[in-house]
Amino acid sequence: MFADSARIIIKSGKGGDGHVSFRREKYVPNGGPDGGDGGKGGDVIFQVDEGMNTLVNFRHKRKYAAQNGEEGKKRNCHGKNGEDIIVKVPAGTVIKEAESGKVIADMSGGNTRQIVLKGGRGGNGNQHYATSTMQAPKYAQPGQPAIELLVYLELKVIADVGLVGFPNVGKSTLLSRVTNADPKIANYHFTTLNPNLGVVDLEGAAGFVMADIPGLIEGASKGVGLGHEFLKHIERTKVMIHMVDAASTEGREPISDIYAINKELEAYNPELIKKPQVIAANKIDAVYAQDSDPVAALKAEFEPQGIKVYPISAVSGQGLKELLYDVSKLLDTVDSAPVIFEQEYFPELSVFSDEPYTVTYDQEEDEYVVEGPRIEKMLGYTNIDSEKGFLFFQRFLKDQGILEQLEKLGIQEGDTVRMYGLSFDYYK
């Protein structure tokens, strides 16, 4: 069974609580605090497994949880860190937040391993809170909470060229003839219910990966039939080959079919219609009518629009060489970088969305001060010292409306912002 989508629950490990204890040794009846720190919770890590090509495994197991960090111990002993959990997925899997549909991670291109949920930081033991005035603190910091998230996994085929067309126009036959793929072929609608991939090897030219996208029908962009399941696989392709039955063996009209499919592509994602495309007028060996030339009609209609038409026969092989070599040349003109879906949803931000914060101006220090549990927790999750971490924190400040509040208070470039002991200059 082929499965290209799944819903699962993922949960990071909770940070271990800090420990409250005091030294109790012979001749030291009232020793100082020695409570150890809690261990860090385990991360939820997604990793590409090259041996997987479906998401069928997720039909049987729906929840994936990392281990919690251990509580700190006496004698300054640190609690054990929780073990990470590694979730293996096929290349091309897009991980989305289930409710909003926003992308969390795209396991494509060079991204073969990504931490999707970070485990909670362990809490400080009471040894950290001893001061000259409080030498026996009886409290410790709790560990950061776990993050639980319902995610939607969607496998989008990674192919250079996508074969699109109505059912039974010969896409599977073409793929089996020009690649190493072995799709099931029969003369009835919806023979292909999952994408088939094959590699096209060309002598003296760059080869490419071709995908047979299952047959589309009108209304696919609205989810009719298996519309959305099919259309999503076209998003990663760089060039599309529209296949039509030039002989109209089932009574279909090739020109209207092309327009119908383009309409569905545009309705699903307007960017799809901008991709380079060519038309493969298939089954020309079955054209017997002397009074009409369907290929000439297709050329007259689409070539003025910049869409080239290739008469072919997927069965006999007629015209395939010209089609494939020209598609290879067309691929050379488009961006070779893989289509990667950018991150839109940041799980850490959602955890703190209800926590309060304040933005004030300290006249005495001439500094702008941002404080509150939301800020403190976010700083605990973020490595400000790294460029990526700092950019992430900037995004957090913007998304939470903090930058806007600073500007309302009159902050200017070069002014100082203070957050829990951290100070930095403000620049737009």
How would you characterize the overall build of this protein?
With 428 residues, the protein is an alpha/beta fold. The chain has helices spanning 171-178, 227-231, 254-268, 294-302, 320-332, 347-351, 373-381, 387-399, 402-408; strands at 5-11, 44-48, 63-65, 85-89, 93-97, 103-107, 113-117, 148-155, 161-164, 196-200, 208-212, 239-245, 277-282, 309-311, 358-362, 367-371, 416-419, 422-425. The chain has three domains: 1-155, Spo0b-associated Gtp-binding Protein, Chain: A (Distorted Sandwich); 161-332, Rossmann fold (3-Layer(aba) Sandwich), CATH 3.40.50.300; 354-425, GMP Synthetase, Chain A, domain 3. Helices cover 20% and strands 21% of the residues. Strand 10 and strand 11 form a beta hairpin. It is elongated. Belongs to the TRAFAC class OBG-HflX-like GTPase superfamily. OBG GTPase family.
Short description:
By secondary structure, the chain is α/β, with parallel strands linked by helices.
The low-pLDDT segments are 183-193, 223-227
CATH class bucket of the largest domain: Alpha Beta
Helix- and strand-based class? Answer: alpha/beta
CATH hierarchy: architecture of the largest domain:
3-Layer(aba) Sandwich
CATH topology of the largest domain: Rossmann fold
Strand content: 15-25%
Compute the number of structural domains: 3
What is the radius of gyration? Answer: 30 Å
Q: List SSEs in N-to-C order.
A: EEEEEEEEEHEEHEHEHEHHEEHHHEE
Q: Would you tell me the overall average pLDDT? A: 80
Shape: elongated
CATH H-level homologous superfamily name of the largest domain? P-loop containing nucleotide triphosphate hydrolases
Terminal CA distance: 52 Å
For the biggest β-sheet, the strand order reads: 10-11-9-12-13-14
- Give the helix proportion (percent range): 10-25%
Tally of contiguous helical segments: 9
In this structure, how is the largest beta sheet organized?
6 strands, mixed
